[in-house]
Amino acid sequence: MAINEETVKQVAKLAKLEIKEEDIQTFTTEMDSIIDMVEQLEELDTEGVEGTYHGISHHNVWREDKAEEGTDKEALFKNVKTRKDGYIEVPAMFDNGGSEA
Amino acid sequence: MNFLDYTLEELHEKLVNKEVTAVDLVEASYKRIEETDESVGAFLGLNKEDALKAARETDEKGIDPDNILSGLPIGIKDNILTKDVVTTAASKMLEDFVPVYDATVVEKLKAVGMITIGKLNMDEFAMGGSTENSAYKLTRNPWDLNKVPGGSSGGSAAAVAAGQVPVSLGSDTGGSVREPAAFTGLVGVKPTYGRVSRYGLIAFGSSLDQIGPFTRTVKDNALVLNAISGYDSKDSTSYHGETTDFTEGIDKGVKGLRIGVPKEYYNEDAKEDGVIKAVREALDLYEKMGAEIVEVSLPHSKYGIPAYYIIASSEASSNLQRFDGIRYGYRSENVESLEDIYVKSRSEGFGLEVKRRIMLGTFSLSSGFYDAHFKKAAQARTLIRNDFDKVFKEVDVLVAPTTTTTAFDIGGKIDDPLAMYMSDILTVPVNLAGVPSLSVPCGFSNDMPVGMQIIGKHFDEQMMYRVAYAFEKETDHLSRKPSLKGGA
């Protein structure tokens, strides 16, 4: 086993996901076989090989520092569920709001 | 009026000669959808009023005889933003999401007068190879309704194969245009990375994603790619080079060209030998037409799948962090704290496969695994890219099967994620290397279409289209039409 149920729970926490208790076992088994598969890479000799992190070779892209028309603020609020006084409204973060507090 | 009987050029000619109007074409599209989509299930949403309005305006203005795409209907994959038209990426997360701007490709299509008919089904957030991961509906293969249309752009493929629209757009991160094109007997392209702007494409694997059209013919495909490609200041990874006409030199033939045959892509022990047989027949034909067939090797091909699933999932885990239930998208109602909004909205809004990928990506990027997973995969990617660079010093294009089998049964792989991942084995190396690849129909196996991919050098789509066009002209695969029925 490359990973166990504890690791799955830990990774879920990092990813801000909740895996239901009854699904943990299946999820762990599937994740384990996927991780086994990707770890085939271990056999590959990559000593001294640079990594490729982009689709094509990358270069800096510059533009003139000039103000341009952006998207209308009202339009950006179109998909917001709850709003108040021009802001997005969410439940309280403090006073018992954050589980990590 | 059936779109299976005409090329885009022929439709354009009819518009110019006033045999049909743009309104006729749009109405024909909706009529065909009405007749066939109950069994095919390609569309998630239609925008009939706007499409008819646009068509009327086009007719009033008159068809520009020099603008071949003007007034032609098109379907759009539902991960491409369409202003004021609901765009869901086939996820519950974006059930009621209304974009406030058009993707660059949609703007470009509008600029040439194409008319968007509706939004097409897909695997949720483009993750999958069968369109079975859609949160909304099943899409069926028009050649056999018991089989999948491929994925993730399965709706885009099925709509064109069923004659509902003459062309559609899909997106290809690891094969999501080419595999469904192969499964439904269509031409589908993954352009060179950077060729088409990704602005307004809901991001999956940002260093891999490219948008590409589905069409019935090679030239049609080149024409639509002409319309959507080009530099975009809103996508800093888009290509700065000169604009290219992909139809230029398309009819020059293959005499004297060197066609590479990557031996790793021809697994003779594969489950379905009809696929390799069809591609080998195509190679024989190329040889008869005067091309030189050269066996080559891409030795790191087998590391494509592991490298791809680490890289694509890592990028996805980062890209999909934006779905937090705050600014847009699904928000769980059952929340007491801010943390609750994040966790519950994401857990209720994302489907199983999306969660799997986010989890794999998060794991691969986490401290302790970053070097062994993400960094190692990036190094493997360099080796895969070097393989392509090396063979392209010897040959003009590579020709290989697009998939190892023809379309599989609905339900056949959905409970086995690993088997589903392995079906991308012949398509992912192209995305990792950034090179372009075009899948074209090259025959049939067990009465289902077989696709052959023509892989080109970076930014040499012209050569790829030329080689594909020469084959299409010498063969007659297009005359066979899908049954829109279930299998025996």
TrEMBL record, chain A:
EC number(s) per entry: 6.3.5.-
Protein origin, superkingdom: Bacteria
Enzyme class, spelled out: ligase
Catalysed reactions, as listed in the record: L-aspartyl-tRNA(Asn) + L-glutamine + ATP + H2O = L-asparaginyl-tRNA(Asn) + L-glutamate + ADP + phosphate + 2 H(+); L-glutamyl-tRNA(Gln) + L-glutamine + ATP + H2O = L-glutaminyl-tRNA(Gln) + L-glutamate + ADP + phosphate + H(+)
GO function terms (MF aspect): asparaginyl-tRNA synthase (glutamine-hydrolyzing) activity; ATP binding; glutaminyl-tRNA synthase (glutamine-hydrolyzing) activity; transferase activity
One Pfam family matching this protein: GatC
One example of a Gene Ontology biological process annotation: regulation of translational fidelity
UniProt xrefs under InterPro entries: Asp/Glu-ADT_sf_sub_c (IPR036113), GatC (IPR003837)
This protein's UniProt keywords: ATP-binding, Ligase, Nucleotide-binding, Protein biosynthesis, Transferase
Description of how the protein assembles with itself and partners: Heterotrimer of A, B and C subunits.
Family as reported in the entry's similarity comment: Belongs to the GatC family.
Role, per record: Allows the formation of correctly charged Asn-tRNA(Asn) or Gln-tRNA(Gln) through the transamidation of misacylated Asp-tRNA(Asn) or Glu-tRNA(Gln) in organisms which lack either or both of asparaginyl-tRNA or glutaminyl-tRNA synthetases. The reaction takes place in the presence of glutamine and ATP through an activated phospho-Asp-tRNA(Asn) or phospho-Glu-tRNA(Gln).
PANTHER family the UniProt entry points to: GLUTAMYL-TRNA(GLN) AMIDOTRANSFERASE SUBUNIT C, MITOCHONDRIAL
Protein name according to UniProt: Aspartyl/glutamyl-tRNA(Asn/Gln) amidotransferase subunit C
Species this chain originates from: Alkalibacterium olivapovliticus
Lineage of the organism: Bacteria, Bacillati, Bacillota, Bacilli, Lactobacillales
Annotated gene: gatC
Automatic annotation (TrEMBL), chain B:
Top-tier EC class: ligase
Amidase domain location: 24-463
A single BP term in Gene Ontology: translation
Protein name: Glutamyl-tRNA(Gln) amidotransferase subunit A
Recorded name of the encoding gene: gatA
Self-association state and partner proteins as the record states: Heterotrimer of A, B and C subunits.
The keyword Nucleotide-binding belongs to this UniProt entry's keyword annotation: yes
Entry keywords, A to Z: ATP-binding, Ligase, Nucleotide-binding, Protein biosynthesis, Transferase
NCBIfam families registered for this protein in UniProt: gatA (TIGR00132)
MF GO annotations: ATP binding; glutaminyl-tRNA synthase (glutamine-hydrolyzing) activity; transferase activity
